[in-house]
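Supplementary Text 2. Reproducibility record for the structural model of the 797-residue chain.

All settings were left at their defaults, and a single model was retained for analysis rather than an ensemble. We include the record here because the model underlies the residue-level annotations in Supplementary Table 4.
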Amino acid sequence: MSRRRHSDEGDAGSQPHKRRRTSEPIEIEDRLESLICRVGEKSTSSLESNLEGLAGVLEADLPNYKGKILRILCAVARLLPEKLTVYTTLVGLLNARNYNFGGEFVEAMIRQLKETLKSNLYSEALYLVRFLNDLVNCHVIAAPSMVAMFENFVSVTQEEDIPQVRSDWYVYAVLSSLPWVGKELYEKKDVEMDRLFNQIEGYLKQRQKTHVPMLQVWTAEKPHPQEEYLDCLWAQVQKLKKDRWQERHILRPYIAFDSVLCEALQHNLPPFTPPAHSDDAVYPMPHVVFRMFDYTDAPEGPVMPGSHSVERFVIEENLHCIIKSHWRERKTCAAQLLSYPGKNKIPLNYHIVEVIFGELFQLPSPPHIDVMYTALLIELCKLQPGSLPQVLAQATEMMYMRLDTMNTICIDRLINWFSHHLSNFQFRWSWDDWADCLTQDIEKPKPKFVKEVLEKCMRLSYHQRIVDIVPPSFSALIPANPVCSYKYEEETECPLPGLAMATTVSNAIKNRASNEEILIVLKDVPNPNQDDDDDEGDGFNPLKIEVFLQTLLHLAAKSFSHSFSALAKFHEVLKNLTDSDEGKLHILRVLYEFWRNHPQMISVLVDKLIRTQIVDCAAVANWIFSPEMAHDFTRFYVWEILHSTIRKMNKHVQKIQKELDEAKEKLEKQQNKKQRDSGDEEDMEKNSEDEEGQLEEQIERLQEKVESAQSEQKNLFLVIFQRFIMLLTEHLVRCETSGVDINTTWYKNCIERLQQIFLMHHVIIQQYMGTLENLLFTAELDHHILAVYQQFCALQL
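Retained model, structure tokens:
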């Protein structure tokens, strides 16, 4: 059609015609890509007629554009897994018309599979395996060769000295393909498939599952068991086998073309050996299957499939695939989810909500940025205003009821989502339904959750608005008015030490005094840590820090910008006051004391102090675990600060490492160039040697900086873990001595915060595991604390 249009166009002069002809192949290639990518989307014709028409177009274009068509089909197999059976049918039709093309496609897919496995792209490799499997249904690949490939996959479980996550992936690749191809393989090769099943069952029975508690969203097994992903899939496949491989939810367009496809010649897969394990391989982490709903939660309409029915797996897998393909465009993603094929046979809204929360709560981290899920749910509510908000409200209510057993990390994410969601719907919520939290201790999960949600809502609004939206009975949970606490504001009967100096400093700042002038003024502040006759006035002086910082923050309290400007202007004074570790710790104490009612201000100013190198990361960690912060230790904002601090440290190390790698690369290029140009003049060679010398010096300096930064990074983690161990050990000893149950709300929070550090920063922590094991997580440590470390180690075993 497009080719005819180009050839029929009028010849308005030779030059324009030439231009059109040079762009014609590109236009045709773009048209082919568009036709292939959009097949199966909204159309007035049936899917079958669209596929038949497209197969005809592609067959006609094969002589000129075979390479392009192969590349596009290989790409959609990898990147659009939700349309898997549509594309396998298309390949089946092309194979029936052109056997050689079918063979070339299978070879290209195997090449691509090997490349993705070598590049650690395991989710894409999984889709390619599934695609190859479905080609068995389309009579493109012979069933015996697919069974042979599966046998090679399962043989990985017999390899020695490999991490469990490697064999897990290959077993998962086999099991997760069976809903699509199990029936066909069992009909052709039942004996071999039974042998394969026995091997998989034997492997699953001896697998280590130490990691499971660390990855569960809820600790309770009721109302829904929180199953490890391979165990759950094995139960689903076992049930599918028992039901004679009958499932009702996979779209199978190739059935309509059975008479055509069964006449086609099939290809044997080339022998496929999984790439050998290497130390730099990064296998997918195990996960726990998230369950929130069952058939009793969706009383009207279609019944929700049971947790061990393979339909549940297929639906969830397809919804995950849609999100993975379209997550960058929330409107497209929402529309695609709501137009899921077969939506009339299932309670789709319940499945969508469960899958989205399953991804949001996935540990150690969600597949996509947290805010994407908020935006997606808002978009879904707009598209389905009559039904989806009710399901979402029901889900929120369920999660609130189960807060007691919910993982603290997931509660954090729930707080962030719920507050952001409310801010888009005028903060409307039936707060009275949660009045049960008002009679509980403020540290219990429910009142704590409501308090933290309201605090987050205040960040997205303002204090009076929050006071107005919640019932008066909730006043105890409303966050404090975010005003500062300036200790030198009023004269009292017993004057505060430093009050007169604070007034002097305030006047000096108002009169635009320089850093040097402020330092001269501060020299007169007496040091409470020294005797009057002690002449050494340069030691740590807490009063000096209090007088200056309280006054500076008070004068700049109007906004974030004012505070940032003040810290920048008096950077020299602050550096002078914090030249010791005690000074760094004390400046954070004073900041907290001044802004104790404004957690957001504390967070952003601590961030600023780190960026401007007034305090270091280890000082922030020590401050968070200090006795002065015990009152706020379980508050959400405190852990925001700590994780932000760790991320800054990690980014700092990465930045210097990148600079070092670039310098080494530059030197290597320089040396290669020198070897190539070795016959050139002497002065060029001299310049080259000078440049090399400079680069070598730069590399040496950067190497020292990297080692110093890594040492600082390791020290930060040692400080954090040491503090955790001290706090938890004190609690365990205290409970044992008093004969009290250790499982208090504080203990649950603290142990799960320890897990959070391991999970959120696992890539970095793995570099220092030897040090951690030798210095902190030794065999003598209490088994409650050591269990967390062992669970973490098991994640990559």
